[in-house]
Every structure is written in structure tokens, then in C-alpha cells.
Amino acid sequence: MKTRVMLASLLVVSLAGCLDTSGSGSGVPIATDPGPDPQSLRGDALPTGAVSFFKKLACPEGWKPYDLAAGRTIVAASETLPSGETVGSPLASQEERKHSHALAASVEIPAVSYVGAPGGGNSGVGQAGVVSFATTSEPAPDEIPYVQLLACKKDAEPVPRPTPLPPRMLMFFDREKCPSGWKPAEGTAGRILVGLPQDAAADSPFGGDPFTSPEPRSHGHAFSSTVDTPSHGIGLAGGCCGDGYAKKGTYELASATEPSDVDMPMLVLLQCEKE
Predict the structure, then answer these.
(1) How many domains does the chain have?
(2) pTM for this one?
(3) Domain housing 137
(4) CA 232, 234, 236, 240: dihedral to nearest 10 degrees?
(5) Among 69, 89, 71, 99, which residue's Cα sits nearest to residue 218?
(6) Per residue in 82-100, pLDDT tens?
(7) What are the b/e assignments for 158-176, b being 16+ CB within 10 Å?
(8) Cα separations in angstroms, 44 against 51, 64, 102, 140, 161
(9) Residue 89, in any domain of the structure
């Protein structure tokens, strides 16, 4: 009896070495999923030539610094505004550009006559006629709010991912046409992108006409003012024949400044939308 128990124990031990993880006893190890290869997790699914900003001091793997965008904002290209064009000179670090305006105006001062002989001795009185002036305003900052971010360009091949890139994603590209699976973005050509304000409608163009050339956009200002001619007593009666003196009063003038460039340097690039 004791011998039978020992043989049964040996048989159980022997079979235990042949059981697989399912308990089938086939003796063939079942393959397990080792998980993704760590090397395959490197890189990203964005196409080659993509251009984006990063809140980093160095571009991520597969990307390199995009020097064309240094010191510039990026504007979506259009048929009349080709990709690769640059506008203005790049900004230096934390530079605030300034601008000024040339302005000119004139005002007509009516005449008043006095009984007497015009000429020397009547000092302190003004001359009637058109008074003109021309000057340049003091330089003033453009006060364009901006943040400096690292611009990088994707130079590696895309790495396929199980989860696709989201549709309607916008991306700038330094290439002649949109990559496969992407199409030219609609409604952004020639415009600067601004984050959506709270409770605002998306995809709504606003402001002036889109940029249609690499020429800087200029602006001017209307202005108005008044000229006062104060009184100055003289010992003469009004009448003939001392004429040509400026008449006391308040006179209005109005004009507009000469246009001045809005100096925000830009880079024009193709913008595509994920299908």
C-alpha cells in the first residue's frame, strides 16, 4: 500500500512539469504578448514637414529647429500669398516694435482791418491767412501681445499609431502640398490664428481683409484740433485801411496722418486640415 502512494506522488510531480498555463498538459508553453517594442514608441504620427511651436528649449526627437520662423508669427498661405514668403525683419528677444506717423494740416485765419497804417510799431498782432504745419509723431510702441515659443520642423518619417490623429486638426507644413490624409485648411488663409474666446463661435473670421501679398499692412489715424488766436489790444479803431491782421477766435482743423506699417514680422506657410 505504501508503495502505491509513493508511485502516485511521483506521477503527479512528473505531470506537473508538463502542464501549460491553461492546464492542458500539452507541455508546449503558450506564447505571451511581450508588449510593444520600446523602439517603436519613439517618434510620432505627424507627417514629415510639419511645423509647430513647442514650450521647450529643444525640439523633440524627429524634429529640428525651424530657423525661418525665429522671431516671426506664422500666417496661413493663400493663392496670392505664397508659402515661404517673409514679411518684415525678425523680432529680437522680447523686442517691442515702435512706429510713428507723419502728419500735416492747415487752418485759415480770417482777416480784420483797422483804421491806421499797417507796418512797424504794431507788434504782437498776428497775420491773417492760411497757417500750415507738418511734423512727425513721437515713436509709440505697437503693443502687440505675443509669447516666444520654440518653432520646430518635423524631419523624420511618421510613425503609425493605433490611434489616428484627430480630424480637423490644423497644422503648418513646410512643403509644396498637403500630405496624404490632409487637405488645405479653409477659412484661415491670410489670417493670424487666435485662441477661441469663451462662449464664442468657432471658425469665425474677423477684422480686416486677409493678407494677399507679402507687403506689410499699414494704418493711419484721423486727428483734429483747434487753433485759438488771442486778443491783443492796440490803439486803433476798426475800419480802413490797416488790413491783413488775424481775427481773434477759435478755428478748427482736421486731417489724417500718413500711413505707417504695422511691424509684426510674419512667415507664410501652407496650412492643412486633417481629414
Answers:
(1) 1
(2) 0.67
(3) 99-141+220-261
(4) -50
(5) 99
(6) 999 998 899 999 998 888 8
(7) beeeeeebeeeeebbbbbe
(8) 13, 14, 52, 44, 8
(9) no
